[in-house]
Amino acid sequence: MSLQPATIHQLDHDGMLALTDRSPARAESAFRQAQTLAAAVTKLAAGCQNVFICGMGGSAISGDLWRASLGQQESRPMTVQRGPGLPAWVCPDTLAVFLSYSGNTAETLDAYHRAQETGCRIVGISSGGQLSRSLRESGRLLVPVPPGMQPRAALPEIFFSLLGATSLCDGLTPGERAAVAAWEAMAKVVSAEGNGQDGQAQALARSFNETTPYLLGLTPHTVAVAQRWQTQINENAKLMALVAAFPEMTHNEIVPLHAMTPAPYHLVLFRESETHPLVRAQLDITLAMLADRWQGVSELEGSGGPLLARQMSLVTLGDYVSIYQALLRGLDPTPVGAIQQLKARMQAASPASP
Fold first, then answer.
1. Which of 306, 294, 328 is nearest to 201 (CA)?
2. Fewer C-beta within 10 Å: the chain N or C terminus?
C-alpha cells in the first residue's frame, strides 16, 4: 500500500520529506552565495600541494562527494578525515577544509585547532557554533550556510557551497547546472510517491525494511553515493546498511557471500558508464558466482549526463528511499535519539569539551 499524504503529515513532524523536496533550489542558492567567496578561496589555495578535508557524519559526506566528483582531474592529493587529530603531512602548503554544520563537532574542532598551529590555509563551512566564531575572529575564510536543519539534511547547502567556493565561473557551470537539473528531475518523480503513488523509491524502501541492503559501488563516485545511502538509512530509517567497493570486495567479502545460501542481503549495484574494462569483466564473473545468493537485486545508474549530475540523481533517490523506509515503518525520520544521548553523555563527562 502506498504512503498517503495524511500518513506522512502525521509522522513527519519536522518536515524532512518537504525539506528534501526543496533540495534542488537550496543547492542552487547555496552555490551562488558561496561563489561570492570563490576569488578569496582561489587566492588562498594558489600553489597548495595537497588538500585535507575534515568532517563527521552528514557534513563529511560532502567532502567524499566532492573528492569523488573531481575524479582523476584533481592533480593534488586529497584526503577526507573523519575524526580528531591531524596528519603529520599537513603543512603551510596544505589547503585544509573543515566541514561542520553545527560548528560544534568535537572531532572537527580538535583537528581545526591543531591545523591552526601548522600555518596551513584554512577554510570552513558551517552554520555557526565555535567553528564559525573562531574563523571570524581569526580572519580566516568562512563559507556560511543557513542554520536550523539536521546536518544530514544540509547536504545541498554544504556540498554546493563547497562547489561554489571553489569555482570562479559566473553562475553555475554546465556540470553544476546539469547536477541541479538531474536532482530536480529525480526529486519530481520520487516525491510524487508521497502523494499516494507507488514507485521505485517506495519499492526499494519496502525491500530494505525486510532485508539489509548491500550497497556496492563500482567507481569512487558511486562508492561515495553508497556511503550517503548507508548513513541516510542509518539515521532516517534507523536501520543497518552495508557498503562495499568493487573490485575490492572480490578480495575479501566474496568469500562469506559465496558461502551463504542465500545471503541475508539485498544487493544494490550502482552501475556507472565510465567503469574500467577490467572492472566490468570482473563484475560479470562475480555477479554470476553470486547470482543465487541475494534476497533481491536492484541495479541503479545515475542520470543527467555529466558525472556530477549522475551522482546527484542517485543521492536524491537514496534520500527519499531512507525517508520512505521510516514512514513505512510508522517512524518520524528526523529524530536521532542515540546520537543526541551520546553527545549529552560526552558533554557531562567532559564539560570543557565542545
1. 328
2. N
Closest CA relative to residue 333, chosen from 344, 325, 343 = 325
Buried b (16+ CB within 10 A) or exposed e, 57-73: bbbbbbbbbbbbbbeee
Exposure b/e, 264-299, CB count within 10 A at least 16 = b: ebbbbbbbbeeeeeebeeebeebeeebeebbbbebe
**Exposure on the CB side of residue 327, measured as CA atoms within 13 A:** 31
- Beta-strand ranges (E) seen in 69-184 are 78-81, 94-99, 121-126, 141-144
In whole angstroms, give the CA distance from residue 117 to residue 125. 19
Among 351, 345, 272, 348, smallest CA distance to 313 is for 272
Identify the structural domains of the chain with CATH numbers, from first to last. 36-172 (3.40.50.10490), 175-328 (3.40.50.10490)
DSSP labels for 254-299? HHHHHHSTT-SEEEEEEE-TT--HHHHHHHHHHHHHTTTT-SEEEE
Is the pLDDT at 167 greater than 60? The verdict is: yes
**Rounded Cα distance, 67 and 239, in Å:** 27
The rounded distance, in Å, linking the Cα atoms of 6 and 12 is: 10
Mean pLDDT, the chain, integer = 93
What pLDDT shows up at residue 194? Answer: 73
Res 274: pLDDT = 83
Contact present, 12 and 327 (Cβ < 8 Å): yes
Task: Read off the DSSP letter of residue 188.
Answer: H
